[in-house]
Amino acid sequence: MNRQGKVRLQKWYLSYPEKEKKKIMRDLIPVILSRKPKMCSVLDWRDKKIVYRRYASLYFCCAVDSEDNELIILEIIHRYVEILDRYFGSVCELDIIFHFEKAYYVLDELILCGELQESSKEDTLRDVDSQDLLQEFPPFFMMQTGYSAEE
């Protein structure tokens, strides 16, 4: 979300009705935005632990189980932002607005079903770049040029 509370990306790994999701976001966003910069980036909220980090004008937040390690979650958030930075070349809010599908794809390469899937920045970027090539060159074109997906 940005500093005005506008959600730019959201990914839910538990099933909630849409009405409940909106209520959670409506209740949680002001809590995070009202916190001072020097305050801890972890807070207990309902039965979850909220871990967030601010980068420029964007907040990256995760709601995790109360027994999860918040330092690992902070590292995952940082890893995601680093990958976005390398992919977009210094990521900004406009990159996420206009290329949200890429931001989601990077997130899906990094996290699967709420668990860290790939910790390597290089492997994640390579997978995202490969996906970009597949979108740029349809399979028919790849067959004609001799391009192989195994390469």
Q: How would you describe what is shown here?
A:
The strands form two sheets. A three-stranded antiparallel β-sheet has the order 1-2-3, with helices on one face. The chain has a two-stranded antiparallel ribbon with strand order 4-5. The termini are far apart. The chain has six helices and five strands. Helix 4 (100-110) crosses helix 5 (121-136). The chain has helices at 18-33, 70-88, 93-98, 100-110, 121-136, 139-145, and strands at residues 42-45, 48-55, 58-65, 111-112, 115-116. It is globular, with a radius of gyration of 17 Å. With 151 residues, it is of the alpha+beta class. It has one domain: Beta-Lactamase (2-Layer Sandwich), CATH 3.30.450.60. One of its GO terms (molecular function) is clathrin adaptor activity. InterPro entries: AP1_sigma, AP_complex_ssu, AP_mu_sigma_su, Clathrin_sm-chain_CS, Longin-like_dom_sf. Adaptor protein complex 1 (AP-1) is a heterotetramer composed of two large adaptins (gamma-type subunit AP1G1 and beta-type subunit AP1B1), a medium adaptin (mu-type subunit AP1M1 or AP1M2) and a small adaptin (sigma-type subunit AP1S1 or AP1S2 or AP1S3).
